[in-house]
Amino acid sequence: PKPSNPSPNNAAAIQELLGGKFGEMSTLMNYTYQSFNFRGRKKLRPFYDLICSIAGEEYGHIEVVSYTINLLLTGTTKRGLDPSGAPMADAVGARNTRHFIASGQSALPMDSHGDFWTGANVFNSGNLKLDLLHNFFLELGARGNKMRVYSMVDDPTAREMVGYLLVRGGVHALAYAKALEAYTGVEVTKLLPIPDMKNDAYPEAKKFMQQGMHRKLYTFSQDDYRQAGIIWNGVHPDDNQPLEFIHGAMEGVPAPDLEE
Ligand code: MN3
Fold this sequence. Notes:
Elements: H1 8-19, H2 24-36, H3 45-73, H4 98-101, H5 128-152, H6 156-184, H7 203-210, E1 216-218, E2 244-246
Parallel strand pairs: 1-2
Helix pairs in contact: 1-3, 1-5, 2-3, 2-5, 3-6, 5-6, 6-7
């Protein structure tokens, strides 16, 4: 849906989910570098395939957060007005003035304070157990941030997007827990959910769960990464319904084509 109202401060809060320490830039770049750098692929193929599959999805997540920020900022100013009347005066009080000064009221790879994302957020130790633990931690830190941002924003588009990310991020947290189980035998899934609240407390997340989106892992390739299915199998701990492993991508939706 389109936002009900232009909302610079909702947009500022949402930026944390894009360029914060636990934002989508971090998940995308962590898994991307871990996949490029992955050694011993023959022996550890299922883990390589899993990290690659999840990295592919994270590219879509930076896109969906960016479009949400653009939608929230659309209509906050009018074009072509006399500058002597300070037509952007309201933006002085916005939580994140970079949306108005450094961009055309659009998304940037920064957090909710306007601090830019940095590659220092990428962790790739060369030790698979440690990297999987890190990724599990990263997804759960991200989940906590999403739950707090949801509680801050009132816009329906913002909440729809956060609900979607809660469900898909939940898949990734469970996937890394199952990878740690497969690799070490430790029952990591018993730690879930972290934080304690379940996703179905959020109406928008519940809607996606009713579509089974919490049980599906996609490879984002017809032919590659098929051994990720060795890890993504069994049932979901929340509802005991079977996990689904899908060769390929989820169906997309048209991207917003906004006015200049
Ligand atoms: Mn994500």
